[in-house]
Amino acid sequence: MSSLAGGSYPPTLDDALEKDRLAQAIKDWTIANGLAVRPPPAVVSNNPEGILAMSAPVTLFPSPFPKGCFEEAKAIQTKYNELYARISQDEEYLSGLVQEVASGDEFIAELWKIHLRVKEEGYVQNLALGLFRSDYMVHQDGDNLQIKQVEFNTIASSFGGLSAQTSLLHQHLAKNEYPLLQNPISRSSVDLPANNSAEGLAAGLAAAFRAYGQSTLGHPTCVLFITQDGERNVFDQRHLEYALQSSSTTPDPIPVFRLPFSQLLTHTTLAPSSPTRQLLYHPPHNPTLTFEVAVAYLRAAYGPSDYPTPTAWEARYQLERSAAIKCPTILTQLAGMKKVQQVLATPEAVSTTPSALRRFVPNDEAAYAALWRTFTNIYPLDTTPAGQAARRLATDPDACQRYVMKPQREGGGNNFYRGAIPRQLKETPEEYWASYILMELITPPPVVNTILRNGVLEQGGVICELGVYGTCLWDQGTGEVLRNEESGYLLRTKGDQSEEGGVAAGFGCMDSCRLV
Ligand code: ADP
Ligand code: MG
Ligand code: MG
Q1: What ipTM was assigned to the predicted interfaces of this complex?
Q2: pLDDT in tens, 157-197
Q3: Is it true that domain 377-441 has CATH number 3.30.1490.50?
Q4: Which domain of life is it from (predicted)?
Q5: Were both Cys, which of 156, 215, 236, 261 would link to 292 (CB 3.0–4.6 Å)?
Q6: Coil, helix or strand for 329?
Q7: What is the 151 CA–ligand 1 centroid distance (Å)?
């Protein structure tokens, strides 16, 4: 198998003084520039004032990444944005997929119930905002390298803030530190692409804020970031807020607030006796202020742990039925189900219904082919012939080694890999198997790098996952797309022994691309 590491890049550092110098440079730059996270609760409880921050885990060197693959992933993003905007508008189709998984998945069933409640009284906001992230790994097949999609995120797509900073960190090191190594890397030999992920995502939020227009009730309008309690990845979000605040072209900044999802019902109300159901935010620090929420940006509410009580579901209902532009709506959140990705990737010949990709991309052959190339094999685990065949693979102790099994969940840590698949299926009643999908494992070419995590250097084989951000604003009623942009990238890297790669989940680290 050929290796992307090739030659002497990235270097493996053996000299202790040299390693210390680079690690120190990174420790300081990351804090000086907000490439940081809050420390874990054990540390925080010793520092109740909450002033501590620590460096986000990061690679010493930008990992080599094939230029053609990088450019392909960026180029296709606007097609993906459009595809997922269309899926979000196809309530009937989503309904069918929800029915297929809901019996074994109470969380999806609850989301659908909220959507139906709001549908019955009528939605009062037609505009919908997507801050998407399409994730890929490079699949190596002989000499051929091809990006294959890991998943498409439609809710709380994170790390756009930290990713832009990581690109800047590696640019700083390439200019000031790598040329001073014992085996120097010349500045000109490192091709580091620009990365506007923070500004790009903020521009998406700003576009929705402008599209909402003025308050008819005379309140100032605002953007509301809806967060998780005890969020450690707060600086990632703050970078987006700051970019949004400084993006205003008028002397007045865009008001941005942060509100934990758990406090939504305490600090927001729907405008009383108004049929248009404006969402009003009452900042707890100043009772004389009231803002009308133009854009509600969810960085929470994507998994069952955000809904510990029925009240949390009422909070989601209040949000969904309000006039705020939701990022995302429940339909858009559901468009991000792994089940949707599976039906898109199911070839026409196998599919029981017309191919889902054809349904959503009926006329544009070039877009169809470009999207199709990024899919890998994904199978249902239902009782159709294709599902039965997949069940045989999933329960076979040898065949299962080539697969990952996924439930309809977000946020990392939910999947079953290789030998864990038959074990999980054994514990799951067969009538619920259809709530999972079975996906072929993507096998990227080997890369070696060094990760700085919690002040410790870990050197070895790594696996890289590229994410490309997209921002899309559309009208659910007319289908008109008001904004459709590719909005920067993320490279996350994990040790090659780790199956999950989430930075927030504690396995992965921030990285950037050195194009090769
Ligand atoms: P989540 O929505 O929880 O992030 P993902 O589908 O992204 O779920 O899976 C989590 C992680 O599992 C990915 O970041 C990746 O490291 C690994 N993974 C998922 N699917 C595959 C695959 N087909 N091949 C290899 N690794 C995968
Ligand atoms: Mg996801
Ligand atoms: Mg993921």
Answers
A1: 1.00
A2: 999 999 999 999 999 999 999 999 999 999 888 999 999 99
A3: yes
A4: Eukaryota
A5: 215
A6: coil
A7: 7
